[in-house]
Amino acid sequence: MSNDKADETKDRARVPWLKVLETVFVLVAVAGLALWSVPAALVVGGVLGVLACERALADRRAAGERHGGEAVGGERR
Questions:
Q1: pLDDT tens across 22-53, in order?
Q2: Could you give the CA distance from residue 71 to residue 65 in angstroms, rounded to a whole number?
Q3: How far apart are CA 42 and CA 64, in angstroms?
Q4: What is the pTM of this model?
Q5: Which are the contacts of 62, defined by CB distance < 8 A and separation ≥ 6?
Q6: How confident is the model at residue 59 (pLDDT cuts 50, 70, 90)?
């Protein structure tokens, strides 16, 4: 049992670093695209921003369902 808690702690510690790495990667890619075409970089940045918001909302909905409570921002069944 205690081993499961240790694994959970390791997973939680790993997630922020992955999000930081992912964010840096996307920013560098959009900056590189901006060197070639600023309008294209703005469009791609906007699309990626919408996808990031949808992903964050999906994580919150799934977390609410996992704990047995009503999902935050989710549809009622």
A1: 889 999 999 999 999 999 999 999 999 999 88
A2: 5
A3: 33
A4: 0.57
A5: 71
A6: confident
Query: CB–CB of 29/47 below 8 Å?
Result: no
Contact between 72 and 64 (Cβ < 8 Å): yes
In order of 11, 21, 23, 54, 68, the CA distances from 28 in angstroms are: 26, 11, 9, 21, 39
- Compute the distance between CA of residue 60 and CA of residue 44 in angstroms, rounded to an integer: 25
| Helix locations, the chain, DSSP H | 2-36, 38-66
Q: In whole angstroms, what is the distance from residue 34 CA to residue 75 CA?
A: 38
